Amino acid sequence: MDNRIRTKKVDDCIWLMNDNVSTGYLVCGEKKAVVIDTMLGIADVHAVVREITDLPLMVVNTHGHCDHFYGNAYFDCDCFLHPDDLKVAGLHMKLPKIAKPWKEKKLKMPAFKAIYDGDVIDLGGLSLEAISIPGHTPGGICLLLKERRVLFTGDSINRHLWMQLKESLPLKTFLENLNSISWVTEKADRILHGHARDFEDISLFDELRAGIGELIETRGKGETRYSTEYKWSRGIAKQYPFGSDGRSVICYIDKKLD
Ligand SMILES: [Zn+2]
User: Fold this and answer.
1) pTM value surpassing 0.90
2) Which of 11, 45, 47, 202 has the smallest C-beta neighbourhood within 10 Å, fewest atoms?
3) DSSP β-ladder status, 33-36 and 23-28
């Protein structure tokens, strides 16, 4: 696999970083820079960030999955995670296959600091607000870059949503949580998610809400849309199509419908 991290400037203050597994972001204000997700740690993401900025840094992880926080080990600054994801992050740190190459580099993971719903990070001229969105994981957060009307969603809102995981919440609960933050569609025009290569329109938020609602109502057996088998590394789940692009799916298991 290509171990390089590719970077792309997508706004005057936002850089997208992709390591071929997942996507992290660098947001630079006048006084401080924030790294949103550090990817899988297969390359030195700190060095990549330092080629772009010498501002004081902090790291915020959107959730506790390894492909979003393993790269924290390259940083000696504060790294923030919602406490409700500490358990899943702890489990992911023990995944032997994934942790092995990371441990061979003798990297040490810094302890997480807590970030909560409503916390605002002042970058100087720019601010990021943490918004809880339990679903994909119990402690998942989005970050709203208010001044640029951009919503960073991690894996909580994307076009290939994983809700089949043990730690994922029931779909009904996730839908209620999405409904409770529907105000974000008035505050953001664009989405950058945890596996993106570019912006998505904020309409993805409502497309996903409608898709989950439909899936719950029809239990994946609608007349025009229906679920099919979804094979993944840990077994067989189901996938339900949503949106109008013909490629977006919600992955789940029947248990998540109850
Ligand atoms: Zn994830």
Assistant:
1) yes
2) 47
3) antiparallel
Separation between Cα atoms, residue 54 and residue 10, nearest integer Å: 19
Question: How close is the Cα of 147 to the center of ligand 1, in Å?
Answer: 26
For residue 11, list its beta bridge partners: 14
The total number of residues written for the chain in this structure: 258
Q: 18-31, pLDDT tens digit by residue? A: 999 999 999 999 99
| 3-class DSSP assignment, residue 155 | coil
CA distance 6 to 122: 27
Secondary-structure class of domain 6-257 per CATH: alpha beta
Helical (H) or strand (E) element with 28: strand 23-28
63 alpha carbon – ligand 1 mean position (Å): 7
* Distance of CA 127 from the midpoint of ligand 1 (Å): 24
CA–CA separation, 85 and 185 (whole Å): 25
